[in-house]
Design a protein that fits this description.
Chain B: One of its GO terms (cellular component) is cytosol. The complex is a heterodimer. Chain A has a single domain, classed as Rossmann fold (3-Layer(aba) Sandwich), CATH 3.40.50.300. Chain A is about 35% helix and about 20% strand. Helices cover about 75% and strands about 0% of the residues of chain B. The chains are: A alpha/beta, B mainly alpha. The interface between A and B is large, with 51 and 57 residues.
Chain lengths: ~220, ~675
């Protein structure tokens, strides 16, 4: 991007929401991600519903990653828009041993695509790969679905710490890509980076496939 | 209520969604659009505007954009109003009793809204000096500070202009105006050469400062403006929360232990923070308050669950706290923050997350129904209308135990207070006793002191030489001396003093008992008082008696002197003599005070002493009169004497006038004078 930002511009600010039914392991994923990095010290922190991390990008810039956990209970489903408003990415987490949670993810995806179009990076996460023997949602099925809606698919195990770091790396990457595709001042939320390269606003409903094999690569459960 | 037909919270809200069909909720303020769509629409408009008039690109075009958008928005604005009116009818089924409130309250409140807003205008502006100080403390170059200040002033005046303009007002235009200013300031801070050397933190603090100053100073304009429905929403949500007072932590499935006193304390902390949001002016401070509130909740959840809490736990707990707190002007505060804080603040960062949670908690409260609480619609309705009090056996048992616990605690406290009370009252009685003792002690001491040192009045001793002096003096100024003048000035006093003198002197000379002599003098002085008042007689009478007395007395004294008091110094000067006399006079005064308990017996003595004097004066008349034994009789005698000597007086008056200068000092001398003379006078008969 522009040299000026690299020199002294504000750090990029990414917001990602964690969506998914209750008990699919959203919080565990976040905790694992933070814990892994900070060597278990994070457990002493007060809460796991909002975490923020600074990550270094490939081009040397730094980005701030804000991960917003949401309440997964069905009764709070309607409140979703309040959370993913203005977010750059969404992690849609389901339990591979629970078909219902996968159906829930589908409904989330529909909602997100309807409301946010393509300006949000979606990653469908099949969690609990340590419970492979109880799997209820086939890997291929999920992957197929993800492709049709222009999302990435990742399988993880928060318990075994498998694929977690990769998941968030992919997320950062996707959000960065999103950012570069978006029109610079389409949203006032992009105040921190006002001089993003003004690319043509791609209004296609499908994400242009970046050809990034990360999604497939990080399906480490299998 | 047709909640059974629309069981799901989501399904019931279709009418509320954005007009563009994006799926988000629209709001009446946004012309029925959701905030995102609304922004997009506005952005497109703004771009068009910018393209059409290429005049002010970049930073200086903010006001133009605002003005332009105002023009463009006017048709839509009208539409927005239409939408607003329609709204309450549309959303009847899903939103519980909302319709009733909107129908009634909008009418009543909108009229009063403007007035209320104006009343609220008395927000004490934090001193600008404070902000100036803070501006100085910002670690940015002076050039940048100047620019920042300029921007603050510009936005201030723009807001003011907008608020005082005549055109139709839309809160979103105002919000955009502010947000544009934020963008502009952010642009300046990050790209302006005057900020070149500033670090990123300093830049952020400069932007924060900008926001804080503008928002604090314009709080009165921007907080719940009269042309919004914020007030209505405030009242609505407050009523709603009041209706939902029966909700317990159990309904919300949250892990707050209502019966744990420690947990309760934390809940109270969170509640007080939440309520405190209203007391801050700037959006930052309000967000800070929210942040603290949520921190308390997380602390609470951590104790309850034993680990870092997730959103699954947090949101219900927050909803619970909001329900129990029922903060004032909830919507106004939320809207104020969402409209006028730097948009990035709400969308990122921890406080942004908490604020979003707060928003969703409020949304949940507004639209919750029986299903979302895990109870049937009928039960929910019954609970809402207050027909059915909520109670589950276990819950009420726990709460009952808690109440019992509270009762016992209170009883303990009462006992303690009772003890304290008893202690205080016993202290009071002991203190009273002490006071009485002290009083007694003081009186005793005073009594002993009085007993030890009684007031002893010593007899008046007239030094013998004074008599001689007086005599000598009289001798010197026999004819027209100032003594006569004194007597004239003294008036009635002289006659009285004469009697006093006579009374007092005699015992001294006779060396009788001191007490007796004292009483004599006192008697005389006592007697003097009453005649004094009675004897306010014509001057001629007054003159007559002293002269008469004097001359007679003088004659006697002069005659007797050599025989009785041979040792006195005859040649004393007048001045010394007077001094001596004043002393004597003083003694007499003392005797006056003590002489009140003198008896009638002594008066006889007094009179006896007087006898010779009177006899010497006028031998024929006085004896018969004086024998009747009262001081007043002396007075009655005076006119008599006056009558006797009418002719010599008249020349004396003239002479007196000549000596008028000496009047005042001579009064005292007069009495004293005669005391000394009296001594002689009394002496003479003996």
């Amino acid at each position: 991007m522009s040299a000026r930002r690299t020199r002294s511009g504000p750090t990029l600010n990414f917001k990602a929401v964690l969506l998914g039914e209750g008990c699919v392991g959203k919080t565990s994923l976040v905790l694992r991600y933070m814990e892994d990095r900070f060597n278990a010290q994070h457990l002493s922190t007060l809460q796991a519903s909002f975490v923020t991390r600074k990550v270094a990008l490939e081009d040397g810039r730094r980005a701030q990653l804000n991960i917003w956990d949401t309440a997964g209970q069905e009764r709070f489903h309607a409140l979703g828009p309040i959370y993913y408003r203005g977010s750059d990415g969404a992690l849609l987490v389901y339990d591979i041993t629970d078909q219902d949670s996968f159906q829930k993810v589908k409904s989330w995806v529909r909602e997100l695509r309807q409301m946010r179009g393509t300006e949000i990076a979606l990653i469908i996460v099949g969690n609990k790969t340590d419970l492979e023997e109880h799997r209820a949602v086939a890997y291929e099925e999920a992957l197929q679905y993800a492709r049709t809606v222009g999302a990435q698919y990742v399988e993880t195990s928060a318990k075994e710490n498998e694929g977690v770091a990769e998941l968030f790396e992919l997320l950062t990457h996707l959000m960065l890509e999103q950012l570069s595709q978006r029109e610079p001042d389409a949203s006032p939320l992009r105040l921190q980076n006002p001089d993003t390269d003004a690319l043509s606003n791609s209004e296609d409903s499908e994400l242009p496939d970046p050809g990034d094999p990360a999604g497939q690569r990080s399906c480490c459960g299998i | 209520m047709s909640k059974a037909a629309r069981p799901s919270l989501r399904l019931g809200q279709q009418d509320l969604k954005c007009r563009t069909g994006c799926g988000f909720y629209g709001t009446p303020q946004n012309d029925g659009l959701c905030s995102m769509c609304f922004r997009d629409v506005r952005c497109v408009q703004r771009k068009l505007k910018q393209k059409t008039d290429e005049t002010g690109p970049g930073s200086s075009s903010t006001s133009q954009i605002a003005a332009g958008s105002l023009e463009r928005r006017s048709p839509q604005h009208g539409h927005g109003h239409g939408h607003q009116v329609k709204k309450p009818e549309q959303d009847t089924p899903g939103t519980l009793q909302k319709k009733k409130f909107t129908a009634v309250l909008q009418k009543t409140l909108q009229a009063g809204a403007q007035k209320i807003t104006q009343q609220r205008g008395h927000v004490p502006d934090p001193t600008e000096g404070q902000f100036l100080l803070q501006l100085r403390q910002l670690r940015i170059p002076d050039d940048g500070k100047r620019k920042l200040k300029l921007e603050i002033q510009r936005l201030d005046s723009e807001i003011w202009k907008y608020m005082n303009g005549n055109g139709g007002k839309n809160i979103n235009e105002l919000s955009d105006l502010v947000q544009n200013a934020y963008t502009k300031v952010s642009d300046i801070v990050h790209n302006d050469p005057s900020f070149e050397i500033a670090t990123n933190e300093d830049r952020d603090s400069a932007i924060d400062f900008f926001e804080k100053v503008v928002m604090t100073q314009n709080h009165k304009f921007l907080f719940s403006p009269y042309f919004t429905t914020d007030e209505d929403s405030d009242v609505k949500v407050q009523k709603r929360i009041r209706q939902l007072s029966w909700i317990t932590a159990k309904h919300l499935d949250c892990s707050i232990d209502e019966v744990n006193s420690e947990a309760r304390d934390l809940v109270y902390n969170a509640i007080s923070e939440l309520v405190g949001i209203d007391s801050y002016y700037s959006p930052q401070e309000k967000l800070q308050c929210t942040w603290r509130c949520c921190r308390h909740i997380f602390e609470l959840l951590k104790r309850a669950t034993g680990g870092p809490a997730s959103a699954d736990d947090f949101l219900p707990a927050l909803i619970f706290v909001v329900l129990k707190a029922n903060p004032v002007r909830l919507h106004s505060n939320i809207n104020f923050v969402t409209r006028f804080t730097n948009a990035s603040r709400v969308m990122s960062g921890e406080s942004g997350y908490y604020f979003t949670n707060l928003c969703s908690a409020i949304a949940f409260i507004e639209y919750l129904n029986g299903e979302s609480l895990g109870i049937s619609g009928e039960e929910f309705d019954a609970l809402m209308s207050g027909q059915q009090p909520y109670s589950s056996p276990w819950e009420s048992a726990l709460l009952g135990c808690e109440s019992l616990h509270l009762i016992s605690e209170n009883m303990k406290r009462m006992e303690m207070l009772q003890k304290k009370n008893a202690l205080i009252s016993s202290e009071i009685t002991s203190f009273e006793k002490k006071l009485i003792d002290f009083q007694r002690e003081v009186t005793e001491r005073v009594d002993t002191v009085i007993a030890k040192a009684p007031l002893n009045l010593l007899p008046i001793k007239t030094p013998a030489f004074l008599i001689g002096q007086a005599r000598a003096h009289l001798h010197n100024e026999n004819e027209a001396g100032h003594y006569q003048a004194n007597m004239l000035s003294g008036g009635t006093l002289t006659t009285q003093s004469l009697t006093d003198v006579v009374g007092s002197v005699k015992p001294a000379m006779a060396s009788e008992d001191s007490g007796l002599s004292l009483k004599d003098t006192s008697m005389g002085s006592m007697g003097r008082l009453s005649p004094l008042h009675q004897n306010l007689q014509p001057a001629e009478h007054l003159f007559a008696s002293p002269i008469f007395n004097y001359t007679a007395f003088d004659a006697v004294s002069l005659l007797e002197e050599p025989s009785s008091e041979g040792n006195t110094d005859v040649l004393m000067l007048g001045s010394e003599f007077q001094g001596g006399l004043t002393n004597i006079n003083y003694d007499f005064d003392l005797s006056d005070q003590s002489g009140e308990n003198s008896t009638a017996d002594e008066s006889k003595l007094n009179l006896d002493e007087f006898d010779p004097l009177a006899q010497t004066d006028s031998i024929t008349q006085p004896p018969s009169v004086l024998d009747s034994t009262t001081d007043s009789l002396i007075d009655s005698e005076v006119p008599g004497t006056a009558v006797l000597l009418p002719s010599p007086l008249k020349p004396e008056v003239a002479s007196y006038r000549g000596f008028s200068n000496f009047d005042i000092p001579s009064i005292s001398c007069n009495t004293g004078d005669f005391s000394s003379l009296g001594q002689e006078g009394t002496e003479a008969p003996k």
